[in-house]
Amino acid sequence: MNEKTVMDALVQMKRTGNLLNELWDLTQQLGQAIDRNDQVSTQMLISMREEPLGKLQDADRALREQLEALHGGEDAALLAGMLNGGPPADPAQKPQQMLCEQVASNRRRLTQITELDRVLNQRLGREKSAYV
Predict the structure, then answer these.
(1) Is the pTM of this model over 0.85?
(2) What residues contact 15, with CB distance under 8 A and at least 6 apart?
(3) Contact 79, 70 (CB under 8 A)
(4) Which of 25, 33, 62, 129 could in theory staple to 41 by disulfide, Cβ–Cβ 3.0 to 4.6 A?
């Protein structure tokens, strides 16, 4: 697999990681605002979360377009495997290792965000929670 292809995916995954970290921070702040019963801050933080969520969709779209550009060949399958949490196609290639590590890190952060979001949503929405 072409190193440029892997590096392009790695850039998007690092961007995704930064956005997930930003979303994690905002979600934690949201929890603190809910704890304080600060409705103004709660609404503001909910709105602020929209920006990184939109950018995450853009990064996901860019990765999907990159995969489509590979026209479903062997490289597309190898890259898709790594992006879905699989091992490096060639463990000797440092960029592939870095990509797989970043994917795993992003997945862990996303799990943390999802768990915290579920708790906060249930606290805010009670019986109208999206998670009930």
Answers:
(1) yes
(2) 55, 59
(3) yes
(4) 33
Average pLDDT, the chain: 94
Residues contacting 13, CB < 8 A, separation 6+: 63, 83, 99, 102, 103, 106
User: Which amino acid, 38?
Assistant: D
Q: Which residue has the tokens 């704890």?
A: 35
Tell me the pLDDT tens digit for each residue of 48-57: 999 999 999 9
Which pair of structure tokens corresponds to residue 10?
């790695």
Task: Give the torsion sign (CA, 108, 112, 113, 118).
Answer: positive
At 124 the pLDDT is 85
Residue 76 CA to residue 13 CA, distance in Å, equals 16
Residue 8 confidence (pLDDT) above 90: yes
Rounded to the nearest angstrom, the gap between the alpha carbon of residue 105 and the centroid of all alpha carbons in its chain is 9
Q: How many CA atoms lie within 13 A of 112 on its CB side?
A: 16
Residue 90 has pLDDT above 80, yes or no: yes
Place of tokens 């969709």: 57
| Rounded Cα gap, residues 98 and 114, in angstroms | 24
